[in-house]
Amino acid sequence: MAYYETMFDQLDVTAAQLLVNDSSFRDKEFRKQLNETVKSMLDLRVIPIFNENDAISTRRAPYQDSSGIFWDNDSLAALLALELKADLLILLSDVEGLYTGPPSDPNSKLIHTFIKEKHQDEITFGDKSRLGRGGMTAKVKAAVNAAYAGIPVIITSGYAAENIDKVLRGLRVGTLFHQDARLWAPITDSTARDMAVAARESSRKLQALSSEDRKQILYSIADALEANEKTIRAENELDVATAQEAGLEESLVARLVMTPAKISSLAGSVRKLADMEDPIGRVLKKTEVADGLVLEKTSSPLGVLLIVFESRPDALVQIASLAIRSGNGLLLKGGKEARRSNAILHKVITDAIPETVGGKLIGLVTSREEIPDLLKLDDVIDLVIPRGSNQLVSQIKNTTKIPVLGHADGICHVYVDKACNVDMAKRIVSDAKLDYPAACNAMETLLVHKDLEQNAVLNELIFALQSNGVTLYGGPKASKILNLPEARSFNHEYCSKACTVEVVEDVYGAIDHIHRHGSAHTDCIVTEDPEVAELFLRQVDSAAVFHNASTRFSDGFRFGLGAEVGISTGRIHARGPVGVEGLLTTRWIMRGKGQVVDGDNGIAYTHQDIPIQA
Amino acid sequence: MAYYETMFDQLDVTAAQLLVNDSSFRDKEFRKQLNETVKSMLDLRVIPIFNENDAISTRRAPYQDSSGIFWDNDSLAALLALELKADLLILLSDVEGLYTGPPSDPNSKLIHTFIKEKHQDEITFGDKSRLGRGGMTAKVKAAVNAAYAGIPVIITSGYAAENIDKVLRGLRVGTLFHQDARLWAPITDSTARDMAVAARESSRKLQALSSEDRKQILYSIADALEANEKTIRAENELDVATAQEAGLEESLVARLVMTPAKISSLAGSVRKLADMEDPIGRVLKKTEVADGLVLEKTSSPLGVLLIVFESRPDALVQIASLAIRSGNGLLLKGGKEARRSNAILHKVITDAIPETVGGKLIGLVTSREEIPDLLKLDDVIDLVIPRGSNQLVSQIKNTTKIPVLGHADGICHVYVDKACNVDMAKRIVSDAKLDYPAACNAMETLLVHKDLEQNAVLNELIFALQSNGVTLYGGPKASKILNLPEARSFNHEYCSKACTVEVVEDVYGAIDHIHRHGSAHTDCIVTEDPEVAELFLRQVDSAAVFHNASTRFSDGFRFGLGAEVGISTGRIHARGPVGVEGLLTTRWIMRGKGQVVDGDNGIAYTHQDIPIQA
């Protein structure tokens, strides 16, 4: 106590000792009094320091219950936290927190979030802490009691002076005990790397299965989805209710809802994927390298995918089944709005995966704080696919060395040429902007050939958009001609019923504008002149280039790719709308009869293509 | 001077004024004395501060020559630097350095390295500096005089207190004048970004050409290589001489040499590439999406490539012609040993590219300091291909967000199964290690089935290697059985006549070992058991997996890919030995008749594959 006083004095803070007895807590009046006393002391900026009043204690053996009686300093602290309705209880130890085994054993891992159901039996407690009476067993018991009575508890090391500060700043320090932990952190005790490594190991087992066995897994998943319809809907309804309470936008809530029809349609699409030709091990190229030496280029799974998606829980089912079809391991991070739906869907799917593959093929990442850890694992994760806002995609692209498949921007152009069919131009321009204004393949900039100003076609196009409620902004030329407010930048994605208009010299001007200001997503020309069309199709360097068709067609399903993994504006690997092939790479398989290189002497290279049997 | 004294006093340093006259320098004795005086002062830690002795100066008009007479403080400084044989002269200005135009003009760019031949006529000098007598014109004149007399000069801003410190730490501050600048920094005045942007613009012009025109460019390059054989050899001989003087390893010098045969073979390979089927615009997939709506997936150039290669100058020709064939822009950085050879080869190739495409299609980066700048440009460079040491590749992979195609490690395994043909096993194992021990596809670890210990096959394999001078290290099992020194790690690439040996349980043990310790480059099984072979081929998850053939076949030329871009151990984009297809991406081209999406109403998706016409 003298030491506490000396230390607090340096901060000009007064500390006061309160010596209590276990028996005192039996008295209701004492408890009330205690609350008031502590409150008054805190108002006076006096720090109460509790300890057991050993001198008058009558206790013989330590109590082992939580009936309001304490049995050491840890349980005293838990008890006080409850009585005083503390916001947080911090228990300081001589180790970083609770480990899965003795902290001195290098195989022991720090548990970041304690989950009673999971950890209670799993943990091997070592010797008790060298300081004070209570060891880690006692601390955990106290922490569990307080946590499940509603007081969050953190056990952390008292040796690092900054730990308390870190805890208060919400950083991941020590071990957290919280009554809801089981709901929101089923995986945080396994490190990100462990998850990725386990997913890769399982994916290798999946790849070793026969094509028929992999197909069967998808059928089992489809059946399991239908069989668990009620459970899925029950969990989904909780998500929907939470979203409505939180005042989430109606359109977002609608995307969250899993109707029986949606579940059955999802099961149907999983079966469709199962019936698809096996994408793994397809021979893409076959060459006779030399007599009796045959080389094949075959399709092969990428390895481990990390997919970060927002809101819609059905995406989880689509992505998981795509990963299984393509033999990949998967780490999934869904939006928090769909937390319960994602958890149940993940469970239903994982339970349907046979033990020979293992339940860790698909890992569900539930806390946002895991993401930065996962993005660092460029040696064990092969591809990240973010499906969500531009901000999400950009943020991921900027923070990871893992290849990212996706698109941050969708600045799509429609160029209306002087040789256009005017009705067609109006139809395409309207559809490209209005069919779904917030989509990444919606038109953001309309480019019009200068000759269309004279014959009033420009005005017709403008009217077609404005009469449907589209707000228009002009480039330097168009804003003068049409008396429109000037667009702040041509590189702007509105994602709403708004777009930029500009007048260009000709098709070359349009191409130049698109190269300068586009995002290489999808661009379209409307013209009846086949030469101009081909010029545009050949020269515009975007992932998708259309002639006389709405930019809205730029989509995996509309392209006929089956399930869509995402749309990529990158140039490496897959580009544009990406189907299952974006989840595959290749391997070179060579079968010989003992051939050696030996300085390329004694081998006659033939390099003959061998036709691939269908 | 009083101000200098006050300032230096604070640092406990004494400063002393030396007032000199232009006429003093005519006296040889004065110059000798001056040297001794300054030396003594510096020994006493006294800072000499020179100024013109205006009071006794007889000069009327400023002198404009460099005969040893100064005409302002800048020329006085240059003169003193020469007389005192300074290591470096720093001229402080009120702007950051020398700009291409008036520093206030936003179009003016800071010149990092001044090249007399290039900049003398190009620069527009503005008003003279507001401080002191000498403007920028005077400074540049003084700097050029000192630099070409052997004293490096930097002009930088005197406003930033840390600039002198930065200059001394070798950071890129201000404008550097050096007599060799023209040799090693022909491009440093154009920023890295400008080079990349110019290469992309030129590549678009190249892509707009007909296939025949692109072919013709390659023919012109081949002709130019032969026509310029003498010049190329002359420059190459200078590189070779320098390398020999520097005591470079003989094998490295040999790789540097460009014989007439090599030049003619290079020209031949460029012509061969010209005759190859045009890789751009090939239709890879064709689908009828709906009636009258046809979708094509076509091959398309990546954009701009950055290739960093070491030593061999012929790589420059191969890479440049591959880039042209695939319609890509290119930035090249070669090794400094091949500086002159690379420069002349680059010039010969660039001169053969027609003006319609432009000379900036292929940029030659000559100074190492440009590389970090280039690696930051992930928005304008699409792919980096490092061809060189593991260290080079790792370093590049760790410092850039641009996708990297290549391999850092080549830890290749040969697994000899119990059912092997022993002679074949010895032949393959010897070739895999000895054909070229430093190659990335050479065997680093030999795995042997445990049954081969009993029948002495293990000993035969060991003898085959040891008798050819291979140093062997054993894993925990093999080191005991064979009494070998223990290998420090299984994840080790020797790159020399050394390798690790380990005994494994069976093919599963081998596969597990390879997944745990390999680099997914090339792995081989030697067995006569077709089932075991297929298991190995299917399950080993490496870029190349061989049955009964040496790992040394893992190579673009031996695979029959034509020119080799590199070997990739990544899983995204191309994998294993990569030919021209690694420099291509895809574009989706859609041709319609005015179709719109309109919520997918009124359109009947057919998604029929259309056969591709050859």
UniProtKB/TrEMBL annotation, chains A, B:
It catalyses: L-glutamate + ATP = L-glutamyl 5-phosphate + ADP; L-glutamate 5-semialdehyde + phosphate + NADP(+) = L-glutamyl 5-phosphate + NADPH + H(+). Residues 188-455 form the Aldehyde dehydrogenase domain. Residues 2-157 form the Aspartate/glutamate/uridylate kinase domain. The gene is LOC108838998. This is Delta-1-pyrroline-5-carboxylate synthase A isoform X2. Coiled coil: none annotated. It comes from the Eukaryota. GO terms for molecular function: ATP binding; glutamate 5-kinase activity; glutamate-5-semialdehyde dehydrogenase activity. It comes from Raphanus sativus. The keyword Kinase applies. One of its GO terms (biological process) is glutamine family amino acid biosynthetic process. Keywords: Amino-acid biosynthesis, ATP-binding, Kinase, Multifunctional enzyme, NADP, Nucleotide-binding, Oxidoreductase, Proline biosynthesis, Transferase. P5CS plays a key role in proline biosynthesis, leading to osmoregulation in plants. InterPro entries: AceGlu_kinase-like_sf, Ald_DH/histidinol_DH, Ald_DH_C, Ald_DH_N, Aldehyde_DH_dom, Asp/Glu/Uridylate_kinase, G-glutamylP_reductase_CS, Glu/AcGlu_kinase. Pathway: Amino-acid biosynthesis; L-proline biosynthesis; L-glutamate 5-semialdehyde from L-glutamate: step 1/2; Amino-acid biosynthesis; L-proline biosynthesis; L-glutamate 5-semialdehyde from L-glutamate: step 2/2. In the N-terminal section; belongs to the glutamate 5-kinase family.
